[in-house]
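Materials and Methods. Structural model of F-box protein 31. The 393-residue sequence of F-box protein 31 from Sus scrofa was retrieved and submitted for structure prediction as follows.
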Amino acid sequence: MVEYSLSNFSHRVSAWLSERRVVDGFFIIGWMYLPPHDPHVDDPMRFKPLFRIHLMERKSATVECMYGHRGPHNGHIQIVKKDEFSTKCNQTDHHRMSGGRQEEFRTWLREEWGRTLEDIFHEHMQELILMKFIYTSQYDNCLTYRRIYLPPSRPDDLIRPGLFKGTYGSHGLEIVMLSFHGQRARGTKITGDPNIPAGQQTVEIDLRHRIQLPDVESLRDFSELSRIVLEVREQVRQEEQQEDGPEDTEGRGQQSPREPQLGPAPPCKEPPAKLGGEPGDGGAAAEAEQLAHSGQGQPFVLPAGVSSRNEDYPRTCRMCFYGTGLIAGHGFTSPERTPGVFILFDEDRFGFIWLELKSFSLYSRVQAAFRNADAPSPQAFEEMLKNIQSLTS
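The predicted structure was written out as tokens:
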């Protein structure tokens, strides 16, 4: 089995190729690997066949497109270069339905979202879903695939890295790859949406700046959480100024006027948010493991006014860190990194509070096993991340 990313398909996570013997040869099948229906992040992934290669014993092969609702039909596959190939459907009329685009949209909505148009009352959500349908259906299974690697794991990682299903408001569920890079962790989108495409770094976590949340009653007050996070952001900004020097600091920490801004943090009446261990000592990971074994954790609740697609989030967390999240307008316009809080719940779940958006994303680990997906070296993994980000930058 080999995993490939779909560079042209924003909402599909990957295709994996399986092989099985039949009487007259082999079938190699490429599968669409889709997230569960929104907002059920803990549900298993879904699979649909995308294309099929029939390898004959006469050293010949036929290619079939499996996309659409009218059965297998003629397709084409081309090897572009190492670890990259493309597919093309030669009979795209097999993707059409007798009821036209309206029937195709309603069918897509039931399959991709598990609901009907009448179930969606929010006008903005209807607009985003329609945009995703238009964007993804235009390719008609003419796609380019590039290999992706799973992130390497180290003993001092906060949790085991890998793929996670996450809630993204009206965009639905998306797949994010969590990886660790020294004193930072990154969440890279493997699937995207009309605002932030696949390949972009959706969240970045600063493992040097631990955040100590207040008690539950104080945490319910969004302004209190905002004060704590903005204090840490200012501390990070000052540290960056000291590291880079005054000539490189112009414009750091500035916010874009296109989004509603939070007010300035009030004067500090309490000590700054507590930080974790010294960089590189593995203290955060060791403490997380200790909490896991002891069954202890800090009570957690979302502040009032913070929206969440999934109300069934954990009510205890191990630890929190300062982070930034990437937001942008439609078409990835005016992207900017904004402050937030990374919440580690357990080995398989974490969350992120987007401070400016007053929104909460819950992430749950993809439990499916992948073979032949390990990077040959850490350098190869880093190079892959750069390549997939460059496709949409």
